[in-house]
Amino acid sequence: MNIKPLGDRVVIKKLEAEEKTKSGIVLPSQAKEQPQMAEIVAVGPGGVVDGKEIKMEVKVGDKVIFSKYAGTEIKYDGVEYTILRQNDILAIVE
Amino acid sequence: MNIKPLGDRVVIKKLEAEEKTKSGIVLPSQAKEQPQMAEIVAVGPGGVVDGKEIKMEVKVGDKVIFSKYAGTEIKYDGVEYTILRQNDILAIVE
Amino acid sequence: MNIKPLGDRVVIKKLEAEEKTKSGIVLPSQAKEQPQMAEIVAVGPGGVVDGKEIKMEVKVGDKVIFSKYAGTEIKYDGVEYTILRQNDILAIVE
Amino acid sequence: MNIKPLGDRVVIKKLEAEEKTKSGIVLPSQAKEQPQMAEIVAVGPGGVVDGKEIKMEVKVGDKVIFSKYAGTEIKYDGVEYTILRQNDILAIVE
Amino acid sequence: MNIKPLGDRVVIKKLEAEEKTKSGIVLPSQAKEQPQMAEIVAVGPGGVVDGKEIKMEVKVGDKVIFSKYAGTEIKYDGVEYTILRQNDILAIVE
Amino acid sequence: MNIKPLGDRVVIKKLEAEEKTKSGIVLPSQAKEQPQMAEIVAVGPGGVVDGKEIKMEVKVGDKVIFSKYAGTEIKYDGVEYTILRQNDILAIVE
Amino acid sequence: MNIKPLGDRVVIKKLEAEEKTKSGIVLPSQAKEQPQMAEIVAVGPGGVVDGKEIKMEVKVGDKVIFSKYAGTEIKYDGVEYTILRQNDILAIVE
């Protein structure tokens, strides 16, 4: 991918329903913050962001749970991605 | 559990009514912040979160009181969990 | 008590009317912030909370004045307690 | 007085009209923030409050001007006092 | 003057119309923040205020422009003064 | 260009539709934050901005994705530009 | 000019239409933040402002773009000026 997120941002691609089922997580539609599952496709360099040292804890290929309303959606080569800050990622699913 | 929370987040599983009774705590339904009891099932690594050094004070198996409206609910293998920050945990019940 | 508050939190038990009278403080019902008197029953370890070093200045047995709307109420073995941060305690009554 | 304010808090007792007249200050009733005069009756230890080092600049007996809506009112042995932070005191009247 | 402002506060006395004319500044009544001219009559010690080191840059006798809605008005020996923070002073008129 | 942005600001020029198509990114009109693509035409010096050390990570010529509502629009020699902070740039498209 | 701005403030004088045309910048009236052009006529000393070290990056004579709604307008010897913080200046036009 040739999109390089700045600072502590990452680019993620949402997982389809069958992928979620395989990893055993169901995210209920009535959830308060509407979390979703996604795969990390690009990771920013981290470093000093807003005057705070940020170490990137996720890497490309990680499957993660994130808050649905976080970030900015873009479409690239016909695929939808979301650019968001690492802080909006709740957990890695291994 | 294969959910690995990031930063100062933890994964908890709410305790059922009989478990609460056994540990002697009743959380009144008319409480202002509606605290609940839960068991810790996964703990993030802590470290520098939002530029502040966070030391994790809870561990897997701890029974805790937390504010009901904190965090994000997920369902995994048919069980409901909540991902929240350690700061939203009020106390450990020993 | 087997409730161990985290960080800079304390557990308090509100004082009854006769106890307040004995210590000579009357908290007027029309007060703007509705302060109340309570006794400290458990004290968190303090330490670094939200990136700030907090030293606990209250101890179990202290009678304190606190702001009525602060904290979270719980019921334990039939008794009501409040979990709140040390910063919500205004003064110790000696 | 056996009320010991915590952190950077102080306990003050409002001055009566004749006392204000003697010290030569009239606080107009239509003032925007409604300042008032009071005498300091107890002073907290200062130290690190909310992660900031606070040095107490007022002492018991000081006559001060403070913002009327600051702090919490309590009644002790039939006398009304206010507990407020040193930062809500505007000036010392000498 | 026997009013000693605390921290980074100063006491100012508003200038009358003729004084403003002499110094050549007219403050338009329709201005957005309604600045006014005043003379400094007392200066706090500065030092650490809200955890930040503040150096006082104004001195008694300085004529200054300040934002009209800043500070607290008091009346002393029949004269009106305003207590405000140095940060609410925009400029010194020399 | 003779516009020199201050601090951590940059000047950008929005890319036309054909340019976006070439780089393969389509930004959907119904997007929540309405990101857009632009080219960097001037970069501020960075340094200490609002008390935080900011290192500039973009350079003139970079194609970037930014949030549509960020910044201030100006017109220079008949061309529209936007001045915004580096923090409002989400990613570089390479 | 005998107006000496405090801290990180500067005094600016708005440029007339013909001056803007000469420097080639047109600021559209429908712009979101309504930027304007001005010339710097006085510069504060900078230094520690609100606990942050501020280095002044503009000097007397600089032509700058600033946000129209920032600052406080004053009239001096019949001329209108604006006092604003350096942070409200977007760019220098050279």
TrEMBL record, chains A, B, C, D, E, F, G:
Keywords, sorted A to Z: Chaperone, Cytoplasm
Annotated localization: Cytoplasm
GO MF assignments: ATP binding; metal ion binding; protein folding chaperone; protein-folding chaperone binding; unfolded protein binding
Source species, domain of life: Bacteria
SMART domains cross-referenced by the UniProt entry: Cpn10
Keyword Transferase listed: no
Primary location class: cytoplasm
Pfam family, one: Cpn10
GO terms for cellular component: cytoplasm
CDD domains membership: cpn10
Family in the record: Belongs to the GroES chaperonin family.
HAMAP family: CH10
Quaternary structure annotation from Swiss-Prot or TrEMBL: Heptamer of 7 subunits arranged in a ring. Interacts with the chaperonin GroEL.
Function statement: Together with the chaperonin GroEL, plays an essential role in assisting protein folding. The GroEL-GroES system forms a nano-cage that allows encapsulation of the non-native substrate proteins and provides a physical environment optimized to promote and accelerate protein folding. GroES binds to the apical surface of the GroEL ring, thereby capping the opening of the GroEL channel.
Name of this protein: Co-chaperonin GroES
Annotated organism of origin: Geosporobacter subterraneus DSM 17957
